[in-house]
Amino acid sequence: MMQKTLPVYYSVSESISGRTVTDGGFQNEEKAEKIASFNGIDIYRIAAGKFKTSSINFFFNDNLQRDSVTLNALVPAVLRRGSGQFKSFRDIALRLEELYGASFDCGVAKKGECHIIQFYMEFISDKFTLEDTSLFENAFNLLFEIVNDPLLENGSFREDYLAQEKDNLKKLIEGRMNDKMQYGVERCFEEMCKDEPYGIYEFGYVSDLPNITSNELYAHYKRMTEDYPLQVYLAGDMDSGKVDMVMKKLSAMKRSRTKNLDCCNVEKSPETVKNITEKMNITQGKLTLGFRTNTAPGSMDYYALIVFNGILGGGIHSKLFQNVREKASLAYYAYSRLDRFKGLMVISSGVDMKNKEKAQAIMLEQLEEIKKGNISDYEYESTMKTIETGIKSLMDSQMQIVDYYLSQAVSRTSDSFASMSDKIKKVTKQDVVNVSSRIQLDTVYFLTKDSNQGGINENR
Amino acid sequence: MKIDKLEYKKAGETVYSYEHESGLKAFVIPKKGYSKKHATYSTHYGSINNEFQVPGDKEIIRVPDGIAHFLEHKLFEQETGSVMEKFSGLGSSPNAYTGFSQTVYLFSCTDKFDENFKLLVDFVQNPYITEESVEKEKGIIGQEIMMYQDNPGWRVFFNLLKAFYSINPVRVDIAGTVESISKINRELLYKCYNTFYHPSNMVILVVGDVDHEKVFQQVDAGIRPSNRQAEIKRIFPSEPARINTNYAEQKLAVSMPQFQMGFKDDGFESKGIECLRREIAVKLILDMLMGRSSVFYNSLYEEGLINTSFDFDYTIEESYAFSLFGGESVDPAAVRDRIIGHVENIRKKGLDKTDYERIRRAMFGRFMKQLNSIERISHTFISVYFKDVNIFDYLEVYDKITIEYVNEIFNRHFNFNNLALSVIKPS
Known about the structure:
Distance between the termini of chain B: 62 Å
Order of helices and strands of chain A: EEEEHHEEHHHHEHEEHHEEHHHHHEE
Oligomer: heterodimer
Largest interface: A-B, 95 and 104 residues
Radius of gyration of chain B: 23 Å
CATH class of the largest domain in chain A: Alpha Beta
Distance between the termini of chain A: 29 Å
Strand content of chain A: 15-25%
Structural class of chain B: alpha+beta
Shape of chain B: globular
């Protein structure tokens, strides 16, 4: 778990970024089959039998917005502290251990301008257990109870648990600066989208915390379970008896009107390029360039955009890796990545502070090269194949299969792994050049050195 | 061609193996229904092997820190250009990583496995290192080193190793320092290559939906015939049993203190099933003492002394072994003092039999879950392989371990004289 190794290069994985093959290879395609839809709840089943485990995922979806973001982030943190039957975090942990070390987690994520509150349980398939117990049923019941039957005191959440989780959330929000690479990218997007919902931090704001009362949070929890659209994914080895049991439980869940979610706006042209510099006590500078692609997921140009990103910075064959790292030796990592939901692209690299301008010039030059149509056969072919490998590889992870289909649902598109791959295969070099003309630099964010530096100090 | 087959029914997995005349061993773990095929070619050589005797030579040589990792970068360069480009042309992702005691070259692909595999086998056997390319790489690796200097999780770990060890080379960063890599040249790289990249010091592993016989035929055709190499003498300085210092501190740009602490181990077997038994025993104890279901974890969590980042682990290798636990805390020293009190208390009461059985079952389940991921299987296989054990030997350990043995390890490992704490404080 903590084994330390150094890879030859840093590789970025994205939900469908990516990577692919030439001849079919989708015979074993993992499909998400929608098996029911009622009361604003959609239930999907992914019958992936090759895994040793099964998983159950609940996703409550909300708009990413300033007045609910902190509340949304706090709800799962409090729910995991105890349920009606398992009254403490420890009781839940004991139960998970009894269920052969089942994994449980919950929290929030953002996909575009959608705020997702997720609950996840994964456990080994019944055929690997010693007794004749149904882990599936026990695991589902535990997860459903955590979501649907929280521990209450005087009709609300426990005050002490709430206070502790507010403190933990505060530390989590403040802790975003600890991972400099991720922080640079997040801050760049945040500065770019200051006036749009996308700029809202998914874990919320420290200033909201003092005023959140137990009653208010409980009322918000009720809104989540009753109004938010809910998607449930069942993945792994399961028979119809298990599915029926899930349907029965979910149909008894108290639901009211289902909230309508907004669409994510991807159209915006920056008037001028924003330059932001932030100082921190660090050794290496983090250079991040944020772009608008003005391309929505599922649109005709979207597939060309994926190929464009691959050629620019989606792997070791890409222009950024070849030019910033291999030719100029300026960096260990240099990549580009898309936020498919919001139509944003980011270029990120760790460079010596004094090389910032040089690195930035090389990065922008690569973009210009594509605009001019300078794409070699090698760059194009490698990108196409790499993307296909990437799409197929997603099918080897239960969590990534679920995430792929959830992303499709959030962006209101309906590509299967095979159809996504087919559409990408049709993209030509000219399509890539065409889409590149839409890409505009919006913000340059640079995280750089502060004057006073710390040092190592060993003593007894 | 003699192929061995081992079946692990409890896990639903099979391992095929074949030994090449050069002494190289090759393994295939089939994963039906998976798209990805993951192949690795690894050498029993990592950052700690900086002092050795080349078989046949009299003198012992000392090479600059970080050279194993440097060599890992340089091997991708071939006479005909970068081999990375050839893999990319096939749509596969090659990579490599260097640890303390192994260097691993790998690719994963979904198509054209045979061509990819041939590339892997070829490039690892054919270094092409020029002085010019060595100098160019210093810039890239220099930035890699600087990146880790800003990584609090990495720093807190290595500062702890420095606190544990006075002279063992595990205390040095895997990549070395900007200063140490400046001394690396073409000749030294070839010296290390020729010593440690002999087939008899290496292993090939393929995990995925492949035909094992075809893989072994390719190994047979692709590995250059050679005589078996005499044993490489690896020199490890004799490290004192006691820790170097019990506290290390560094200031970095972090929001709150981060810490790692643990016990330096001694008197351990680092080869064979015995080292897996010890690893599982210490992990079981740590889970019982401070895992999510322990009263201890929950008390500290409720007091705000730890949060969900708190985690623990145990590492055992050829010349070192230690336990490790930590995360974020407003007061790492208070956490340490509480752990000392807790261990003393459990020592009086003894480990609880019910907890032991429940956690042993949970650990078995978590082990099974790992088998979902071909990368995970590959990584674990290689990390235990050079200790002369097989990843599926863990199944036997989970089955046969006893509370008596675990108690014995508990009494031996948790020695407060060997407890050290490393803290990263906000600057």
